[in-house]
Amino acid sequence: MSSSYSVDASSPPHEGKGNGFRLKPFTINLSDGVPHMIDLAKRTNLAINGDYLAPNAGIPLETLVSLRKELIDNFDWETEQQKLNKFHHFTTEIENRTIHFIHEKSHRPGAIPLILNHGWPGSFLEFIPLIEKLKDDFHIIIPSLPGFAFSSAPPPNWTIHDTARVFNTLMTKVLGYPKYAAYGTDWGCNVAYSLYANFNTSVRLAHFSFLPFFPLNSTQLAAENIKLSPLEEFEAKRYDNWATTGNGYFVEQLTKPNTIGFALYDNPVGQLSWIGEKLIDCKSDITVPRKRPNMCKGLIHELEPIRLF
User: Fold this and answer.
1) What biological process terms from GO does the record include (predicted)?
2) How far apart are the C-alpha atoms of 130 and 128, rounded to whole Å?
3) What is the pTM of this model?
């Protein structure tokens, strides 16, 4: 089935489009703040040794020392900034809040608009390596969640559904895509799920890195007479490990965000410790019962044949 609407893929949007949403190009320029960040990192004193710390109690001291040294000695922000600015960045005003996003349009007629929703401790950066791999088949839209990167902070009591509503406005009214697909990782899964659940006349297909639901515990599984596959058992064990020893950050950020926010403000080494520990944990060496499919190929394989557009 061919696409039911046409999309001008000749160029990204320009200022003046966007139906009054103050859509305009955006260039990343944080160079002025880098010397201050490096100076703070140099003046940060770390513990002399971590021998008194229990194993698996968080980021190892030697790892943090190494990350701090890498930041001070080898971090080249100008090069990184130039790489990021090769893509088309924009900001727009939706519900009186600034939303930052990348918009890379495919030159293929009938390409599917695809919004990629990041989570925490990620950002739009986590999808940068996918742009060129997906752009042959999709128009790529990568927004920054409210409060992340260059998007305005959300007000109190803001919910995932509020973010989904704003992102649907971005896709349908600002960029003019009446139908599109959604993908999400981490909190972005919740956003993508809300998009699909609440705006399914526009969001015709959603793909998740995980489902935003808590799994059944062993008692519930036994009561339902459900037997897990080896992969499901592996994933259930990983969830149990997270729930017992890995969710301290989640509880702190959920219940006392001011406390950790003030502690990390203007504190680059603190950020390295707080966020680095989670990224290292996510990349830890684990043995998966079966090989997972490549995400890029999976997206193309699953979305391309389903021409709901």
Assistant:
1) epoxide metabolic process
2) 5
3) 0.83
